[in-house]
Design a protein that fits this description.
There is one protein chain. By secondary structure, the chain is α+β, with helices and mostly antiparallel strands. The chain has a single domain (about 15-105), classed as BMC (bacterial microcompartment) domain (Alpha-Beta Plaits). The protein contains four helices and four strands; from the N terminus they run H-E-H-E-E-H-E-H. It has helices spanning about 15, 35-50, 75-90, 105-114, and strands at about 30-35, 55-60, 70-75, 95-100. It has a four-stranded antiparallel beta sheet. A hairpin with an 8-residue loop joins strand 2 (about 55-60) and strand 3 (about 70-75). Helix 2 packs across helix 3. The longest helix is centred in the last third of the chain and has 15 residues, at about 75-90. The termini are far apart.
Length: about 110
């Protein structure tokens, strides 16, 4: 995936790119790792459009060997739906390296992320 046009990018993507996603509470946590920055942005957009989730952060390739990742939160069923939608959106490109959903993250993880 060398280039990509995202029609009507979701309004939550840009704040998440700046590490300023608005999340009051982390009920469950979803993480999606990609091989490059552009795929992380596409993943974030697909995830937030697919389910009622909040984007916490889209962390780009600085010091990550070119990799990027997306962190999101919401009800566990919504987080699972968002992660599956992102995987489906980019399945043919092979750019998602791993995903994880934590149904009830430990309170110390919540402190670190927020």
């Amino acid at each position: 995936m060398e280039s990509h046009v995202i029609p009507n990018i979701h309004q939550a993507v840009m704040p998440a790119l700046m590490g300023a996603g608005e999340v009051e509470e982390i009920k469950s946590l979803g993480m999606i790792e990609t091989i490059n920055a552009i795929s992380a942005i596409v993943v974030a957009d697909a995830a937030v459009k697919a389910a009622n989730i909040q984007l916490i952060e889209v962390r780009l390739a600085r010091g990550l060997g070119g990799k990027a990742f997306v962190i999101l939160s919401g009800e566990v069923s919504s987080v699972k739906t968002a992660v599956k939608a992102a995987e489906a959106e980019l399945r043919d490109y092979g750019v998602i390296t791993s995903t994880s959903v934590i149904a009830s993250p430990h309170k110390d993880i919540r402190k670190i992320i927020l």
